# Entry
Amino acid sequence: MAFKIDVQDRISTYPGRVMLVPVPGQPDHYDMTRADMPLSEGTPVNKALFDSKADALTENVSVYVSTTGNDLNGDGSLSAPFATIQKAVNVLPKNLGGYTAHIEIENGIYEERVVISGFGGGELIVGSENKSVTVRGIDVVGSFFVKVNIGTLTHSANHWGNLLRVSNGSHVYLGKTMTMDCGNESINGISATFNSTVSAAQGLSITINNSGGAVVMSTGGSVVSLYRVAGTNNMFGLSASMGGLLTYDSSTVESFMGDDAWAGGRIHTGAGVSALSPASLE
# Structure
């Protein structure tokens, strides 16, 4: 099972249309199968999107998103992309089966807070290094392993919360220079909680501005390993607590309260600090 983008794999039917088939010799048991009967009033969908609800991927896949796409009529292919990143996340199986799922996002501002929850068994890549994409926040919960290639996160009154929130044993790798604007709200730029990991590609710059919380926070046994960290007009700088570890190579963060390590948290700096790589997390 995998996503396909060939036109011949698209049928005119309702997305997710199914039928129940009785299981011989097992009363009250049914198999759920795809109903491929074309309907003239239906919408074109990729058959593989229905198949994606299977247990795991069986090959590398790409799902496409564009501001000109359509979550109802699109099928996630290059020629018929979805309109939201969340839709692309939702059609993927949680078990990546040892393969890579790449959500390829076209340039633009996406008015959404993306939630990535429960993925494992492979690599999920969100965004592309050569595209300019803005979202209103990213939550990664209980997922291993997620690579984020989105360059701009900005706070919106309609999308509340820390701009990059990583929790519940998640592992996130930042693969692109990133700028965050917290909008002078009482939120953090990056937060890692409950034994999670956030790391960045070597030499990568992360800039976080206008935070009423911490620029970067590592707590609850989490590890955050960055290279260049910068920012202005922030309440707190770098923060580590409750067994959290935060390392960085260089920092030009401006904050009113400075950096803070407490309750067993540790902050380390200096040349030679190495960020965790995807291979080291396997």
In short: Residues 85-90 form the longest helix (6 residues). The CA atoms of residues 62 and 100 lie 8 Å apart. Confidence is low (pLDDT under 50) at residues 1-15, 37-52, 271-282.
